[in-house]
Amino acid sequence: MAAEATETVEEKSVNRFGVDAASRAWRRIRRSRSNAERDRRAVTGVLATLFGGIFWGFSGTCASFLFENYTVDTIWLMCARQIVSGLIFLIVILSRRTDRGNLLVVFAALGVLLNQYGYLMAVRLTNAGTATVLQCLQLVMIMVYSCLRSRRAPRRREFAGVVLALAGTYLLATGGNPSNLAIPLEGLTIGLVSAVGAACMSIIP
User: Fold this and answer.
1) What is the rounded CA–CA span in Å between residue 26 and residue 10?
2) Among 66, 110, 123, 157, which one has the highest count of C-beta atoms within 10 angstroms of its own C-beta?
3) How far, in Å, are 134, 142, 199 from residue 137 at the CA level?
4) Is the pLDDT of residue 25 over 80?
5) Rounded distance, CA 19 to CA 85, Å?
């Protein structure tokens, strides 16, 4: 019945700003469709984020296992990952019309390369958990970029998040003892490089 009513209303020539019954019904239908589309996109985004995080964490654990139990080179593993993911990415890009080729090159160099190489090297030099925590500092960098671009001060919860993130990184790197690093300096540095790459992956597009 609802579908038939929708078709009946759409067939009529209605005034989008009218106050008659047909116009009001037409606006209700448009709002309903818009809300349904927004809800669908929100659910899709949440699921994509959830599964993306799960697969990313799993990939770090697999990389750590390969580094510890097999003589796998970091560059080789990164190339293998990028070839497979790159093919999938190209298929998606070529299936859509785009004129942002130059931007994709910058995205690949400053985003994907820095992120992938930095993350895998951080896993090799430290461990998967530490590398993932360091990479998640990308959120702090994205927040700082957003505040600078919009010329505003960080909100209280944003500032609190930055403080907590930096405090957690400090404890992770020093173990609470500022005179000694609990992880190699190279691992800490390359982990921050992976965070820069991850931030670029979010900012550049």
Assistant:
1) 7
2) 123
3) 6, 9, 9
4) no
5) 53
